[in-house]
Amino acid sequence: MGYKEQIDLSRLPEHVAIIMDGNGRWAKGKGKLRIFGHHNGVLSVRDVVEGAGELGVKYLTLYTFSAENWNRPSIEVTAIMELLVSTINKEIKKLMQNNVRLNAIGDLNMLPGKCHRELLGAIEKTSGNTGLVLTLALSYSSRRELAQAAKNIALKVQQGELNPEDVTEEVFAQNLYTHNLPDPELLIRTSGEFRISNYLLWQIAYAELYFTHKLWPDFRREDLYEAILDYQKRERRFGMTSEQVN
To answer: By the 8 A CB rule, do 2 and 222 touch?
Structure first.
């Protein structure tokens, strides 16, 4: 029996977030340029998105390009941006066929003009789709997101729109990029690294963390299913006792 057949569809994580790591190392291991790994990582994205949609996962958020990634060699950054544009153009038809709604979070104004336009166009074109919500975290920094949320709230207080005593966790969350998304219940990181890398720091407060040594270009839907099955074997207590939740 495969992993998919063992999954309890009534207990799926509503929102799965993934740190797609290992493209460069995968390429290096094959004696190729790093961008070769990014190209092959696109195949993993396609398979995982289709697998998540078929399973019934409602939200999938992929750490696509961090704010810190801008510090990489310019030739790699340019190649990644060009790959992003070409991928959006190639995949838009598939997204429409699979009823996937595209979304993006991060400092999107940092993206090159053409890349930004293609992204916004794809988001608009898929906005009526009602299936899986696929969110790309682009030019994303969780610390920057948190700082911006604090600034937004401070400004509202300064302008008299909000009282300090009314600033709750819910109010803070409404000022994040992810204000229209539920918090992830499962966070997956590939490549054998055991860190969060400035990704959804507020949102994953109660997420289950799953780490795999597989490099991203080798990750497929069966690996996603394995992670979800592992998630379903865990007890989520949210500070309570086992007796309280069972």
So the answer is: yes
